[in-house]
Write a structure and sequence with these properties.
The complex is a heterodimer of chains A (243) and B (91).
Chain A: E1 12-14, E2 17-18, E3 21-22, E4 25-26, H1 27-49, H2 57-77, H3 82-103, H4 115-137, H5 155-197, H6 200-240
Antiparallel strand pairs in A: 1-4, 2-3
Helix pairs in contact in A: 1-3, 2-3, 2-6, 3-6, 4-5, 4-6, 5-6
Chain B: H1 2-39, H2 44-90
Helix pairs in contact in B: 1-2
């Protein structure tokens, strides 16, 4: 049997290099471009057909998505600050969702199964929260390391704990998305190759499971995009409202 | 609608808690190992690191759980209020 992780490998399609850096175009880059094109295309289709007061099918779906994310941003970041962060979080949600769903098409590439990609998202969000925190509160932002109502004796113990818990946030954000996508697709691959290698008498069983797990993966694609964005909102909200 | 909402929230909680704890503990352990490596304090850095990391993970999970309980209580209260209102309206 083939290595179950084989289909996560990236192979350059077009070799390019810029000032010594390897910027070759591989399957992952193409998958990201397709995701961007799908999101952009769906919205442009609505705009081109004219945004109507009584929305059509596509427009109502997109409006629902927009309202869903807007409610989320308003709940965790606050009504006054929400418009500033809404475009970023909406983009993040749609892009991750599109990447996850594109990965569900057989033969395509799941770019969110690369730790580099999810890590870049999470690292960017972490740096952004630090930047927002320091620009909003100045050096008072460091008080995020000391939770309120802690006795003075406990402060030397609490600072390293809070420091680790803060650093763990972006890592868990990145690892969660990456691990869920990788694990799901590996399971699909193993089950499907089982059904391919067995005779029809037995092979229908793993095939049935493949179909069921496929449905679960579809749900996970939505849930993981949702969790990633909701936690981004929570983290940004935390640094805006210090305790 | 509310059933699928519950399912989504439940899955969200399940995925959040698991990684939150693991990652914090591993990160604490890793930082402890780093301290050992650079300052030659083997094995005390990793011991303290795992303890601090575990504490940080529990703190994260505790906070997440607390926020969720508050949310649930709020939702329950809203539901009770609306249902009692409905009853008032009917009577």
């Amino acid at each position: 049997m083939e290595n179950p992780l084989h289909h996560f490998e990236l192979h350059p399609l077009v070799h390019l290099s810029l000032m010594g850096f390897d910027i070759s175009i591989n399957e992952g880059v193409v998958a990201m471009w397709v995701a961007l094109a799908v999101v952009f295309g769906l919205f442009m289709l609505v705009v081109k057909n004219g945004v109507r007061l009584i929305p059509g099918k596509l427009q109502s779906v997109l409006e629902m998505a927009l309202e869903f994310v807007r409610d989320m941003v308003e709940e965790f970041i606050g009504k006054e600050e929400a418009p500033k962060y809404f475009p970023f979080i909406m983009t993040l949600f749609l892009f991750i969702l599109a990447c996850n769903l594109i990965g569900m098409i057989p033969g395509s590439y799941t770019i969110t199964s690369q730790l580099v990609v999810t890590g870049t998202f999470a690292g960017f969000i972490f740096v952004m929260t630090l930047f927002i925190g320091f620009s909003k509160h100045g050096l008072k932002f460091l008080s995020i390391l000391v939770p309120p109502g802690v006795p003075k004796v406990m402060i030397p113990v609490m600072i390293p704990i809070e420091f680790i818990s803060m650093l763990a946030r972006p890592i868990s954000l990145a690892v969660r998305l990456f691990a869920n996508m990788t694990a799901g697709h590996t399971i699909l691959f193993v089950l499907f190759s089982l059904s391919m290698s067995a005779s029809l008498m037995v092979g229908w069983m793993p095939f049935g499971f493949t179909v069921i797990i496929n449905g679960l993966e579809l749900a996970i694609a939505f849930i993981q995009a949702y969790i990633f964005t909701i936690l981004t909102c929570v983290y940004i909200g935390d640094v805006i409202h210090l305790h | 609608m509310s059933e699928s909402n519950n399912f989504r929230q439940g899955m969200g909680i399940a995925f959040r808690m698991g990684t939150e704890m693991t990652v914090a503990t591993l990160l604490g352990g890793g930082m402890g190992y780093g301290v050992d490596y650079f300052f030659g304090t083997k094995p005390w850095g990793i011991v303290a690191g795992v303890v601090f990391g575990g504490a940080a993970g529990m703190l994260n999970v505790y906070r997440a759980a607390q926020a969720m309980t508050e949310e649930n209580e709020k939702a329950d209260k809203d539901q009770n209020n609306s249902s009692s209102k409905d009853q008032d309206g009917k009577s």
